[in-house]
Amino acid sequence: MNNGISIVFYVCALSAWMMLSPASAIQPVGSTNYTLSSFGGNATLSCSFSSNTSGLTVVWTRNNVPITFSQKYEIISTEENGDAITSNLTITNSNITDAGLYTCRATDQSQVSYSTIVSILVKPLQLGEITDFQRLVVGSNASITCRIQAYPLPTLTWRKGNVELSNKTYNVSTSQYNMTTTLSLANLNYTDRSLYSCIFMNEAGNHTETVDIRVMSNLAPLWPALGIICELALAAVAYLTYHGRKAKL
Fold first, then answer.
1. What gap in Å lies between CA 190 and CA 206, rounded to an integer?
2. How far apart are CA 2 and CA 4, in angstroms?
3. Where in the sequence is the domain holding 108, given as residue range(s)?
4. Residues 6+ apart with CB under 8 A from 154
5. Which tens digit of pLDDT belongs to each residue from 163-193?
6. Residues 151, 72: one domain?
7. How far apart are CA 210 and CA 113, in angstroms?
8. How far apart (Å, rounded) are the C-alpha atoms in residues 46 and 30?
9. Which CATH number goes with the domain that contains 198?
């Protein structure tokens, strides 16, 4: 009989404790992505959580691998009033391979966790040099190649002046962070003269490269030679005229 009373008392006490003890609830307060517009500097990601219990801790991971303090990474977590925490992950000497998704996970003393995703974004950045203009003759072929690095990979648009070109006129190759596109122009004529632009856009920014295609007559390469011939002919005429007048005197 006493055993039965003890069990009932224990169950009632446990139920009362559960009712009086609030369930842990971790809530994200905010997070901050980082956009790279150049490489070599520091990139800082941030996340914040609140909870109705104390003792929050934060762990950063990338591709399910925990990130620890090192020469590359610095982690500073700051508690506020015992029920909130803000954590900053700083990545030093940043480069394109640092771009991507990072997970910030907060855990309380009851081992309840909540995760949020933050990102390092890279606006489209030009790779290599591109010629500002090309001078070509009628009937020849031309190609324009643009190369960029970005994360995430951007959308691509080619334009001739203000007119968007069909994707049948160019090709695109991509890797994790790189995009290369080549616009091909065959059998050029005077109507192909224009400004051609490759335009890359992602959520971090945009980048445009422009090339001026100039189409000339087939005789254009001969113009310098014709100019020299004309100058020589004029000089010969002047010489003969001068000496002819001199002989008459």
1. 31
2. 5
3. 24-122
4. 124, 148, 179, 200, 201, 202, 206, 207
5. 999 998 999 999 999 999 999 999 999 999 9
6. no
7. 50
8. 8
9. 2.60.40.10
